[in-house]
Amino acid sequence: MPDGRVSVVVPAKDEVLNLPLLFEKFAGLMDSGKLRGEVILVDDGSTDDTYHVARAGSAQYSWLRVKRHAINLGLTAALKTGFDAARNDILVFWPADLQYLPEDIPALVAKFQEGYDVVTGWKQGRYGLKRFVSMVYNWTSRLLFGVKVHDLNSVKAFRREVIESIPWRKDWHRYMVVFAAESGFRIGEVRVKLYPRHKGKTKFSVWRIPVGVLDLLAVKFQMSFLRKPLLFFGTWGMVLIVLGLLVGGVSLYLRFVLEEGYRPLLYLVLLGETVGVMLFAIGFLAEAIVDLGDRMQSQIDRLGRERPSREPEKRLEPRAPRNNPRNRPPVQDSKTG
How far apart, in whole angstroms, are the C-alpha atoms of residue 163 and residue 167? Predict the structure, then answer.
C-alpha cells in the first residue's frame, strides 16, 4: 500500500435502519486511526430513505461519499460504480447490513503487507440455509477453478489493478476472486465474524440458487473453452466419432458374422459421424474467431501505447437536448471532487 489509505465500497438497497450504526462504526475506526481513507456508499435504487440518510451522513462525516442509482441495477453494478469512483489503490467491498462489522477491515488491509493482491473474508458464524448454499458453492468453485480459499462469497479487498483486469457482467461479482486467480494474482484470506442481520430484510432468495449455478457454468466455460474452443467442440466431436465407429463395428459384426441386419444402427452411425465432424468444424471456426479477436486486441493495445506520444485532437462534442432523459447521468454523487 503506497500510503495505507483505502476506499471502502458499501452497496446498499433499502438499508435505512442500518446506516446510522454503520456510520458510527466507521467513524470510530477513522477517529482512532485504525482505518484511513474513504467510504463510498452506493444506493442501488432504494425505495426507502436510504439515500437521504446517507446524504445527511456525508454532510456530517468528511470521509463519506454517496453515489446513487435511480433504479436497482444489482450488486455487481453497485460495486462497479463504487470502484470507479474510488480514489485509493486498495478497494474493499463491505455490505451495509451489519452482518460484518467494520472492525474487521484493518485485518483484511493488513494482509496486503504480505504481498497478496486479493484478500477474502472467511465467514465464522451461523447463517441458516445460506450456509449450506454457500458451502456447496464454495466446494464446487474450488473443484472447478482450483482457488485455494475457503469462502468466495464474503467480504473482499483488492488492489486496483485487480479490479481493472476482471470482466464485469451482471451477478458476476461472485467470481471476482476466480478471475483474479486466473490472471495470476495472489489470493489470501482472513477470518471474519458473521453476525445476524441487524435490522431490515435479507436480500437472499432461493431463486438465486439456479442463477448462481448457471453463472458458475458460464464462467467455467468462458475461462476454459472460449479461449480454446477446439478443446470443447473437438472433444465432443471426437467422442461422437469414436462412438460411431464402435457402433459401426457392432453393426458389421451383426451383418456379416451373425447375418442379422439392424437398420437403426446404421442411422446411429451416420448421426454420430456427421455430428462429430460438424463439431470439429465449429471448433476450427471458433479458433479462427478467437485468433482474430486476439489480433484486434493486440492492435488496440499497440495504439493505446502510441497514443500518449501524439497530441490529442480537440473536438467539440454536440450539445445534447436538455430535456432528453437519455442524457441524464445514471449515477448521482453527493460530493464532488
Answer: 9
